[in-house]
Amino acid sequence: MTRHQMREAVFILTFEEIFTNESTEQLIKTAVECESFEINDAAEQMFEGIILHKDEIDEIIKRYLKNWSINRISKVSLAVLRVAVYEMTYCDDISDEIAVSEAVKIAQSYTLKDDVNFINGVLGSYSRSRKK
Question: What is the per-residue pLDDT for 16?
Fold first, then answer.
């Protein structure tokens, strides 16, 4: 499994979590049983980390929304942002540039062009603020 495939699996789990009250363990178990996509230990750990830090991640996202509220963001875009902000904030082995690039690639597959630009803008602003 490539890092991109792992991120995509985490994105899908993160997206699904938005709509359910199921535990991370149950979401992972269901995904494995359905064989919809591959999940490895790294994907499980990242997904669990995103859920554990979801409130903090959402606060970071809120800070970089210009004239938007987090409730107005599409659920797909929110899931992409959560994965990228998690990587940027909690994964020391991933550069911001890679996290943003991967988020944009995933967004290009699952969202509209305007959403891709929006995600890139939010993540770019967050990345620039971290370098100050």
Answer: 94
